[in-house]
Design a protein that fits this description.
Layout lengths: L3 H14 L4 H8 L3 H8 L10 H8 L3 H6 L4 H40 L5 H17 L11 H24 L5 H24 L4 H4 L1 H23 L4 H22 L5 H26 L17 H29 L1
C-alpha cells in the first residue's frame, strides 16, 4: 500500500488544486478539520469508506488516490468525454435555435400581415420535419435511438405531407404520398431495425420473411391509394403486386429454414427464374394485353422477348441446380 506521507502530500496537492481550504474540504466530507490535517501530514490513512467521497470532492479517480499519482489516460479520457458532450450539446442547440428563430421571424411576419397564416403552417411543419431529422430527439431515448429516429423522422414527413395537402385544399394525393413514404422506410430500414430489436422468437428467426411481408402489405396499400387519384382495375393490379411479391415471400421462408446456405440459394434462384419467365402472362392478364412469348433462338431480332426470358429461366435453372448440387456435396462431407 502507498506510504502515508506520499498519500498525504497527494491529497494536499489535489485539495489546493481544487481551491479548497482544509476546513472547506472537511465540511464537504463531513469530517473534522483535524482528520484532514492528519491525512495530509501522513499520520493516518483516510477510512476506506471515504475513498469515493474524497475522489468526488477532489475530482480524481480512485486509482489516482490509491496510487497517489495522476492517471494521465483517465484524465485524457475524461477530457475527451467532456469535449464530446459539449459538441453533442452544440449540435443539438445550434440548429434547434436556428429553427426556433425562423419560426419566430415567420410568426412576426404573419402577425404583421406580410405572410399568410397558411404559409406559416407549412413553414412550421417543414421546420418540425427538419428538426426530427437533425438534430432529432434521439438523445432523449437512451438505447432506443435507431427506432426513435425512424419513428420521429417518418412522423415528421407524414405531418408535412398532411399539412401541405390541407393548406392547398387538395388531399387526394396525401394517402399515396404517406403510404409511399412508409414503404420506403420499411424497405430500407425495417431489416436493420429487425436485426437490432427482434430479440428471440418467431420474428427473430423469420426476419427476412417479416420484412418482405411488410413490404408487400405496404406496396398493396400504396397501389390501393393510387386508385383515389386515378381509377384503375384495382383487383388485377393488386394481383400483379401479389405475384411479384410471392418469390420474395418464398425466399423469406426458405432463408429461415435450417438447411445448407448453398441449397437455399439454389432454390431461391430457381424460384426467381420461374417467376421472371411467367411474369409476362400475369401482366398481360392484368392489363388485357396480348402476350408474345414465341421462341426462336435463331432469330433474336423478331423473338427477343421470348428468347430473353427463356435464357433467364435457363441460366437461373442451371445456376440453381449447380448450387443445390454443391450444397448437397457439402452436407455429405
Amino acid at each position: 500500500m502507498i506510504e502515508k506521507n506520499m498519500l498525504g502530500k497527494f491529497i494536499r496537492a489535489k485539495r489546493e488544486e481544487a481551491g479548497l481550504s482544509q476546513k472547506q474540504f472537511a465540511e464537504q466530507l463531513f469530517v473534522t478539520e483535524s482528520a484532514v490535517s492528519k491525512w495530509e501530514r501522513g499520520v493516518n490513512y483516510p477510512d476506506i469508506t471515504m475513498i469515493s467521497d474524497i475522489c468526488r470532492v477532489l475530482n480524481i479517480s480512485e486509482k489516482e488516490l490509491i496510487t497517489a499519482s495522476d492517471d494521465t489516460s483517465y484524465r485524457q479520457m475524461k477530457k475527451q468525454s467532456a469535449k464530446y458532450e459539449k459538441i453533442k450539446k452544440l449540435t443539438f442547440w445550434i440548429p434547434t435555435s436556428a429553427y426556433l428563430l425562423t419560426v419566430f421571424i415567420c410568426l412576426i411576419c404573419t402577425l404583421a400581415g406580410a405572410m399568410p397564416f397558411t404559409t406559416l403552417l407549412i413553414v412550421f411543419a417543414s421546420l418540425l420535419c427538419a428538426f426530427l431529422f437533425f438534430p432529432s430527439v434521439t438523445g432523449l431515448f437512451g438505447d432506443q435511438k435507431l427506432i426513435t429516429y425512424l419513428i420521429t423522422s417518418a412522423a415528421g414527413v407524414v405531418v408535412l405531407l398532411i399539412v401541405c395537402g390541407a393548406v392547398t385544399g387538395n388531399v387526394s394525393w396525401v394517402p399515396t404520398a404517406v403510404a409511399g413514404t412508409l414503404l420506403g422506410y420499411a424497405a430500407v430500414f425495417l431489416p436493420i431495425a429487425l436485426n437490432k430489436y427482434a430479440g428471440t422468437g418467431f420474428i427473430s428467426t423469420h426476419k427476412t420473411l417479416v420484412s418482405f411481408a411488410a413490404d408487400f402489405v405496404l406496396t398493396a396499400i400504396t397501389v390501393a391509394t393510387v386508385n383515389l387519384l386515378t381509377p384503375i382495375n384495382l383487383g388485377r393490379t393488386e394481383l400483379l403486386v401479389l405475384y411479384c411479391s410471392i418469390p420474395f415471400l418464398i425466399t423469406g421462408i426458405i432463408v429461415s429454414l435450417g438447411m445448407n446456405a448453398l441449397i437455399k440459394g439454389g432454390i431461391c434462384t430457381i424460384v426467381f427464374g420461374g417467376f421472371a419467365y411467367a411474369v409476362n402472362y400475369v401482366v398481360g392478364y392484368a392489363f388485357d394485353e396480348p402476350v408474345d412469348m414465341a421462341i426462336n433462338l435463331s432469330d433474336w431480332a423478331t423473338y427477343t422477348n421470348g428468347n430473353v426470358l427463356l435464357t433467364i429461366l435457363s441460366v437461373c435453372a442451371i445456376i440453381g441446380i449447380a448450387l443445390i448440387g454443391f450444397g448437397i456435396k457439402q452436407v455429405k462431407k
